[in-house]
Amino acid sequence: MKDELVLYEINEGVAKVTLNRPDSLNAVTQEMTGQLKEILDIACKDTAVKIIVLTGAGRGFCAGADMQGLSAVIKGESRSTYTPEKRDYESNGLSNWEGTYNYFPTLPKPIIAAINGPAAGVGFVMALFCDIRFAKKSTVFSSAFAKRGLIAEYGSAWILPRLVGLAHANDILFSSRKFDAIEAERMGLVNRVIEDDLFDEEVLQYAKDLANLVSPRSLRIMKEQIYAAQTESIETSIATAVEEMKLSFDSEDFKEGVAHYIEKRDPKFSGK
């Protein structure tokens, strides 16, 4: 039986996916990377799951790549015996997003990064490609790449300027300096900073609200629209919106959206 490097639990429509190497601040190995992709695929195919929350076990989100693994690369060795599982991975069909950590936009369900501690290197990249980011007030961020003789990995040079602007992105990547959650919020890197003792409760409540109060169909299509629009013209984006709006009028979720409002009750969306 393989080690559980990624944990999975469901609570009221919310899948909590936890990176599980707390003794190393959840530093990433090839095995963990593979298990994460498999677990996220399970969440996407599970009809009981509407929202995914990605977090880390213990006191950190993800400290980056496992240093012993990087040392093995320098020596021309490989410490991994992991064979990725062959499966038909769920995807919304977006092209040009397939990669080791930057595939999150291709997943049809929203992913919230619950950044509960240090996020550096590839851990920083994973947070960038989540759809929404919440951070504990005590969280510290760093790209870390330049201090390891590396480059802006896994599409971070593309996504980071779109989140914080070119000047901030250059600073974060060039200096590899550490910065706190308050600065991250001020730059627009995270949606909200939450006090440490309230973090788990508030993130879960937000995720539950998304899972139970809004249409899963709307979320799925909006996510695809938003990321597709990053590489298409305004004309194409508008045309897509018009077409999708017409399709929405025939959907079960549109009918339920109107009905629950008129009847003044909680919605019961089917996602169809």
What is the first-to-last residue Cα distance? 37 Å
The overall strand count is: 9
Q: How many individual helices?
A: 10
What's the Cα radius of gyration? 19 Å
User: Which class best fits the helix and strand makeup?
Assistant: alpha/beta
Mean pLDDT equals 89
Rough outline: globular
Describe the protein in words.
By secondary structure, this protein is α/β, with parallel strands linked by helices. It has two domains: 6-210, 2-enoyl-CoA Hydratase, Chain A, domain 1 (Alpha-Beta Complex), CATH 3.90.226; 215-262. The protein is built from ten helices and nine strands. It has helices at 30-45, 67-74, 122-128, 156-164, 166-175, 181-187, 199-213, 216-229, 234-249, 252-262; strands spanning 6-11, 14-19, 51-56, 111-115, 119-120, 132-136, 140-142, 179-180, 192-194. The strands form two sheets. It has a six-stranded mixed β-sheet with strand order 1-2-3-4-6-9, sandwiched between helices. Strands 5-7-8 form a three-stranded mixed β-sheet. Helix 2 (67-74) links the parallel strand 3 (51-56) and strand 4 (111-115). The model has no long low-confidence stretch (mean pLDDT 89).
What attributes characterize this protein structure?
alpha/beta; 42% helix
How are the secondary structure elements laid out?
Elements: E1 6-11, E2 14-19, H1 30-45, E3 51-56, H2 67-74, E4 111-115, E5 119-120, H3 122-128, E6 132-136, E7 140-142, H4 156-164, H5 166-175, E8 179-180, H6 181-187, E9 192-194, H7 199-213, H8 216-229, H9 234-249, H10 252-262
Parallel strand pairs: 2-3, 3-4, 4-6, 5-7, 6-9
Antiparallel strand pairs: 1-2, 7-8
Helix pairs in contact: 4-5, 8-9
